């Protein structure tokens, strides 16, 4: 059997009380600040603490020449922005997710718009024409959307502002069943989701 002396018990008890007391220390209570004596007489030994505080914004008159006018795009709601979008779609060749020279120019132009409106977030939708299986078109649409996102990021647009989604052949621009319609449907479409 293990024996513990009285001295050891007392020492352990004091140690436990000391450690427990240290752990429960509370922040010192703050006393309320005394209210200053606001008299018209200022003692000569007191100097001002610094420059007076700036005037409140609402008290400062604003001249009409200083008012920033909105540009017509930033005041539009999301529905109107997407109906008449300043962001142009990118079109692809058959079975391709590679941005050609024209596609890169369009994405570059769209990046300039996004830089002008840094609060905008977008979704890049990948679309395909009606030919091919649903699975193939969903995969190809995703590759098209990702290609656009990657190019936007390389141009300095934050990745967090860009989501991608693939709709495959579900939402065609043109419902025709010929080459001209199919060319319009192979695209990456830009949707402004927040501003």
Written overview of the protein:
By secondary structure, the protein is an alpha+beta fold. It has a domain at 78-194: OmpA-like domain (60s Ribosomal Protein L30, Chain: A, 2-Layer Sandwich). It contains five helices and four strands; from the N terminus they run ααβαβαβαβ. It has helices at residues 6-23, 78-83, 101-116, 134-154, 179-185; strands at residues 90-91, 121-127, 162-168, 187-194. Strands 1-4-2-3 form a four-stranded mixed beta sheet. Strand 2 (121-127), helix 4 and strand 3 form a beta-alpha-beta unit. The N and C termini lie far apart (75 Å).
Give the tags:
single chain, about 200 residues, alpha+beta, 60s Ribosomal Protein L30, Chain: A, four-stranded mixed sheet, 5 helices, 4 strands
Summarize the structure.
The protein is of the alpha+beta class. The protein has helices spanning 6-23, 78-83, 101-116, 134-154, 179-185, and strands at 90-91, 121-127, 162-168, 187-194.
């Amino acid at each position: 059997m293990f024996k513990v002396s009285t001295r050891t018990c007392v020492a352990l008890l004091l140690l436990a009380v000391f450690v427990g007391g240290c752990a429960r220390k509370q922040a010192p209570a703050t006393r309320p600040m005394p209210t200053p004596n606001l008299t018209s007489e200022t003692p000569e030994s007191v100097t001002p603490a610094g420059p007076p505080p700036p005037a409140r914004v609402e008290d400062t008159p604003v001249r009409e020449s200083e008012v920033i006018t909105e540009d017509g795009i930033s005041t539009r709601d999301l529905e109107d922005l997407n109906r008449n979008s300043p962001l142009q779609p990118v079109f692809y060749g058959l079975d391709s997710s590679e941005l050609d020279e024209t596609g890169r120019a369009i994405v570059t132009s769209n990046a300039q718009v996004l830089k002008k409106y840094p609060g905008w977030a977008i979704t890049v939708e990948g679309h395909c024409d009606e030919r091919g299986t649903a699975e193939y078109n969903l995969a190809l649409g995703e590759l098209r959307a990702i290609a656009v996102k990657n190019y936007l990021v390389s141009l300095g647009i934050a990745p967090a502002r860009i989501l991608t989604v693939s709709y495959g052949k579900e939402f065609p621009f043109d419902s025709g069943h010929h080459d001209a319609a199919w060319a319009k449907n192979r695209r990456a479409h830009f949707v402004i989701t927040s501003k």
